[in-house]
Design a protein that fits this description.
The protein is 64% helix and 1% strand. The chain has a two-stranded antiparallel sheet. It has 13 helices and two strands, in the order ββααααααααααααα. By secondary structure, it is mostly helical.
């Protein structure tokens, strides 16, 4: 998994636990029968135990982003010592175990979080990504869709981006294009979606369009190795030797040991 894919999991949050009746949809997302729910991160903690659980969960989330998994795990466990029914802590545990490759344990914690916070769009997005990584792409798409259509979710670009990545994993590049285009419409600064949209369009043989998306990406950031490699291959397909040479030089100069540079030097352009 490359650097673009890492970190695509929704931002971790904390909230007052959701309650109420739920209904299930054929094993799909658990949706509250009384309407949309706010994300966990948009609700304040109530009471001292939950406030302390929230602090430790948020701290653990920061450690997870830094890939300090052991510390993140400890913070999540500490949070549950203060409030054993705090759904965000189970969500954090699930994400840490997912990163550790311990999928059975991760799924158990996701199940606890989903039971405690039904209808939470951030949790749906996280669990959807877990399902996609676990090879259950079609089920994952149900969770991404439920997350994205929740009107109380302030970052619907994230589940559309994840759905696009999952569609690429399924080699359904047209669906990926649809989802990633939606993600960019919702957040024009979504560089992750920009890169993968260029990739999805490239895989469909529309090289000039793929170049347009790469140009937009390059206007927003210094291209990392994956994007430089894609840009190089686009220019190669278009027969633009000057553009190909520019990106070739960048790979050699800036990313001399990157896997993409190795592939280029081996003449493996696909």
């Amino acid at each position: 998994m490359n650097r673009y894919t890492l970190g695509v999991v929704a931002l971790l949050g904390a909230s007052l636990l959701a309650t109420g009746c739920v209904t299930t949809n054929g094993g799909g997302p658990v949706i509250p029968s009384d309407g949309a729910r706010q994300p966990m991160s948009s609700k304040p903690a109530v009471g001292v135990p939950q406030q302390r659980a929230k602090i430790h969960t948020e701290l653990g989330s920061l450690y997870l982003l830094e890939n300090r998994l052991a510390v993140a795990l400890e913070e999540a466990r500490t949070a549950l010592q203060f409030d054993a029914s705090y759904a965000p802590a189970y969500n954090l545990l699930a994400l840490v175990h997912m990163q550790l490759g311990e999928n059975t344990i991760a799924e158990e914690h996701f199940a606890s979080a989903l039971r405690l916070a039904p209808g939470d769009p951030e949790l749906f997005n996280n669990y959807g990504w877990f399902l996609c990584r676990s090879g259950r792409e079609k089920q994952a798409m149900e969770y991404f869709a439920a997350s994205a259509k929740n009107p109380l979710y302030q970052t619907p670009s994230s589940p559309h981006t994840n759905a696009g990545l999952c569609a690429i994993q399924m080699k359904d590049y047209k669906l990926a294009e649809t989802e990633l285009t939606l993600a960019i419409r919702l957040d024009a600064a979504n560089t992750l979606a920009l890169f993968w949209l260029a990739d999805a369009v490239y895989r469909q043989g529309r090289y000039a369009e793929a170049r347009q998306w790469i140009v937009q990406l390059e206007q927003r950031l210094e291209l990392p190795s994956e994007a430089t490699w894609l840009a190089l291959r686009i220019e190669r397909k278009l027969g633009n030797r000057d553009g190909e040479a520019r990106y070739t030089a960048r790979l050699k100069r800036v990313f001399s040991t990157a896997p993409e540079t190795v592939k280029m030097l081996q003449g493996d352009y696909e």
